[in-house]
Write a structure and sequence with these properties.
This protein is mainly beta. It is built from two helices and ten strands. The strands form three sheets. Strands 5-4-3-7-6 form a five-stranded antiparallel β-sheet. Strands 8-9-10 form a three-stranded antiparallel β-sheet, with no helix packed on it. It has a two-stranded antiparallel ribbon with strand order 1-2.
Length: 107
């Protein structure tokens, strides 16, 4: 997303839908597609994790696994090798752990 932008457009079901960035909870790789999970529904889009990671910007989102990108303020709990977001448990890959730890605010 562009700096200062609070939304993106995603192409889903043949339409370009406006989506608030803050609605995105996590993104999951599904073969040649990615599944964007929001508070209200999920969207399948044809893209790669690398492309989405580059487009989303680095401040609110972090890639935590080769198959997962999470919105930092949706994270409820961080354990040794997983993140808990509500009822969803997301694995944290060893090569992504340092980046995650650098982006969260520890007291």
């Amino acid at each position: 997303s562009r700096p200062g932008s609070d939304h993106v457009f995603v192409k889903s079901d043949g339409k370009r839908r406006k989506m608030a960035l803050k609605a995105i909870k996590w993104i999951e790789a599904q073969r040649d597609y990615v599944l964007i999970h929001t508070s209200s529904q999920d969207y399948f889009i044809h893209s790669t994790m690398k492309r989405l990671s580059d487009r989303l910007g680095q401040s609110d989102f972090v890639r935590v696994h080769r198959s997962f990108i999470v919105r930092l303020d949706s994270v409820d709990d961080i354990q040794d090798s997983s993140i808990v977001m509500g009822k969803k448990v997301i694995p944290v890959g060893a090569s992504y752990k340092d980046d995650l730890m650098n982006k969260i605010n520890f007291l």
